[in-house]
Amino acid sequence: MTRSDRPHDRPAVRCREVRRTYQLAGSEVNALRGVDLDLAPGTFTALVGPSGSGKSTLLRLLACVDRPDSGSIMIDGTEAATLSRRGRLRLRRRTLGFMFQAPADNLLDYLTVRQHLHLAAQLRGVPDGRDREDELLELLGLADRADRLPRQLSGGEQQRVGIAFASFGSPALLMADEPTGQLDHGSVDAVLDAFLAMAEAGVAVVAATHDPAVARRAHQTVRMRDGVVEEYGRG
Amino acid sequence: MRNFGASRGLGPLRMAPWWRGPALLLRRGGVVIALVAAALVATLPAAAAVPFLSSSRSATLHHQISAACQWSSGVTVTSYLVSPGDSNGSPSAGPGPQGVTALVARRTGLATATARTVPQLGGAETTLVATIAGPTQPAAGPHPFPDADNYPVQLVSRDGFQDHIQVLHGPRGTGAWVSDAYAGTLHLKVGDQLHLYGGVTPGGAVSSVTMPVAAIYRDLRQEPDQPWWCDLLPIYRGPQGNRPTPVVIFTDQPSFLDALPNLFTNATHTISFPLANPDLDDDQAGDAVVGIARLRTALFGPPDSGFSPDPPNHSVVGSLLPQFTARAELVRRSMAPAVVPVAVAGVLVGLLIVGAAAAFWVQRRRRELTLLSAHGVGARALALKAVVESLPALVVGAVAGWSGAWALVRWAGPDPVLSGEAAPWAALGAAGTLLAALLTVAVVAGVACRSLTDQVRSRHHRVLRALPYELVLLAATVPVWRVLGDQRVTGDPSNGLGTAVHVPGRLLVVPIMVVAGLTTLAARLAVWYLRRRGRLRSPRTPAAFLGWRRVGRQAVMVAVLAGATSVPIALATYGATVTGSVHATIADEARLHLGSDVVFTLGRQVPIPDSLADRATEVLRLDGAIIGGTQTDLLGVDPGTFARAAYLDSRIDGKSLDELMPPIRAPRTGGPQKVVASALTPAGVREAAWRGDAVLGGTVDVVPTSVLPAQQAGYPTALVPKAALGDDAQYAVAQLWVRGDPVEIQRAARAANLPITQVAVAADRYANSQWEPLTYTFDYLTALSLLTGLVTLVGLLLYLESQAPSHRRAYVLLRRMGLRARSHRRAMFGELALPLVAGLIGGVAVSTALSEVLGGGFDVDPDVLPNAVVTMPYLPIGLIAAAVAVITVGAAEYAQRRIGRANPSEVLRDTI
């Protein structure tokens, strides 16, 4: 479950002078004002900062659901800032993984855990197989939950299945927006373990969060304020 | 890594979210109902159009068949039976009794055998009719009628005649069956011998045969006419104006054939094959018509068949069925320009609802769609998912629409009999609409899904979205108006089929385009206003504030709902205006032509019965008078009651009948009698004469006006006090003109035992088959109006269902903040009332404007006065408005009750 097919010396994400301004009710909101960011493969990064600092906007740009007004966003060697809609879609499908805050939002309630992995393999166009699924489930501590539906899982388990679903096929970048926001303390550790496991497997993991626990266990923290990266730090 | 594209082609169908789609939809009951209802609404008009046209054609066909003599609708083969005489048909050298009998048998056998190959024809009925030169007389008595030639006797033989007359005496053996009236005249009784006189023998003597009186029957004229005798009606009733009593003597066929050669006269031999099933459909009628043409060839082909169009047989194969079928097809063809646009409009409205249902599907499946989109699934693949999920519901809706259309046309259409083509065309219409619905779902879902996780908007995209495409539709109305023309009549009056009058297609097509274009434009402007300005409004009450904010947030949904309400209301109101105006115009034209709603022509002057006194007037009609050298029909009227009971549209020249009365109400003061005459009759003091003699004192003072009632033969009419006719009144035809309900009037007239010789009803002018397309179109538009209510209701349910989760969440929060339930109910009412009332007002306004602009074209008979009478359908509008009000209040109350039952703990966990 490693990203051996991609060069390790190439950053998973490289942002340069990324700017994004929104037009809201006749006024301009400068959400990002020249962000520079590098994320290496195999690292777990916590994106922290107060509300309105630009975390979510940056995450949206990295997830290719929005485009910057200016600047460059290289994801796994591909310039995402100027990609067409189809190009962004292809990048999302092959290179990116994304997780929403609510555990239930990351799963399809009618699929079992294993069926999620099967679907992820189909979506990414990677060969699936019971061995690969078992390997990932084992890695995330979900081996005995393979045939359960989401409603039969706890919130933490659901979030870990979400991680498995989003990262099956080894994407270059796995993003999570407040991944622990709706979890209890016990579940948070398990989810962070899962993130770290994915990072060890070579995936660059970035999580926007207010949770100090996430920042503590991340390999690095990126603190944002007023639309710029204020500080890099160690987790 | 394989190059697998989830958004390409049908590849996604291998994945669980797609192939499990149909089952997944079942978990969303509201969406299922919305999709089924939307597909039903869209499919129904598409599937109903062809069956409705087929039903109209069947109705026209059956109307003609039922109005015609049953023997004429099938096939009649009529030939001569020539008695001894010359070869030109006059009696000289015909066959003897055996020869005649053999000829009749040969003809009947051949015709019957051939007719068996023609579909839909029933069994043969043979009728023999011989006109005998003079009267009969008792064998022992004197000749009762010296002027014998004026009293023809018809010797008739028809299979089964005994079953269709009332036998008073007898029968005893074979022989002559004479009527009681004739038996009374000749003092005949059963068993008496009766001389029948025929033509002149070669020796110069009057031929005769003697036949016993076998039975005496009740004269057919004393009984109501039976359909079975319809073709012999002229024989026993006699031609119109024929005063002498016709004498009909029935006899059995062997007796007839024995007697005929000895009577030295010819006979007609008619073999009739009535339709076995008068309710046949168009396909069956077409097969029968082909068979009838084949029968003609088969009968006339063999040289010894006994049939030929040449002397002495003079055979004629007759059938009205080909003409009926052609006319029915003419009516169907004439209706298409009105029905097809209406159906298309109905389908478009339905597809609008399908689009709303698809948007509803996206909303209810947003979480899953967002997740899939985040995993790189494109809008096309999500649109495919929408199609796969909605397919079963849409199929069910389409089947329901098809079944509903079929049932509605058969149950409420002009005729329940539909041709074979109706079913496949209806299925094709349903299938086509289903495909269009699937495409609509795909497009709407695809477009909606594009914004789920990819919110990049290019300037190009924004510009394309902002373009007012509806202006193209509005601009296209001008060339379409010109291309479609002003054809009001289909058919060629000279080809025997007559014409079919209909509403010009452009009066329906162009308004549909205008309604669609204006509604879209209004919706675009409404969205713009609600988004830009709506949020800036700050109403004082919490209810208004909440309602207004919700409307502003759901601007597109509100505009769609208003449009979905407006379009069908506009079309239904306009349709009702067109049809009502056409109806009113024709009715007024008919009234003006006739003079009033009902005109009784009386055998003599009688007092007006009390039951009609308040709405009737007596008119003495003296046609053909000459006033100032111009032929003018004189109407002797009662100046006191004429204006009340006669009809004149004051819009023609601005004067009512009452205003025209003063000249003839005023007492005569010694000068010439004043008359009010319509145009063409010269004004001023003129000479007046009738059949060469002076009338009205010889001179009249003509007060001119443009048009008067009852100008029936193209001549002007003149009103004169009936008292002024003096002795000339005895030559006038007495009429009673009555305003009101024709059925009720005729019932009252019958009850009063009026000596009526003729009844003319204005309504009959537009009730005959020439106007059938109009009548049927009215029916179709009425059905569309019913569909209007369904469309509105479905749209509203969709809206409510889509808003329910957010309303529940908001309500719980607002209640905690102190909002009262009553305020929330008011907010709900306002939120619903705004689009519905806007749709109602907009729809009625557009239809009113269209009626004002296009009203001049609502006269399908523009050569006849008065011109178009535009009548607004106030009752339907009132009913629609009431329905909208009830639906708004009911829906608001229903929604509030649902929201009010929300469990706060569940609602706060609700994530759609």
UniProtKB/TrEMBL annotation, chain B:
Q: Which residues form a coiled coil?
A: none
Pfam family example for this protein?
FtsX
**ABC3 transporter permease C-terminal domain mapped to chain residues:** 343-447, 784-903
Q: Which UniProt keywords apply?
A: Cell membrane, Membrane, Transmembrane, Transmembrane helix
Regarding the membrane, this protein is recorded as: Multi-pass membrane protein
Q: Which family does it belong to?
A: Belongs to the ABC-4 integral membrane protein family.
The name on file for this protein is: ABC3 transporter permease C-terminal domain-containing protein
Give the lineage: Bacteria, Bacillati, Actinomycetota, Actinomycetes, Micromonosporales
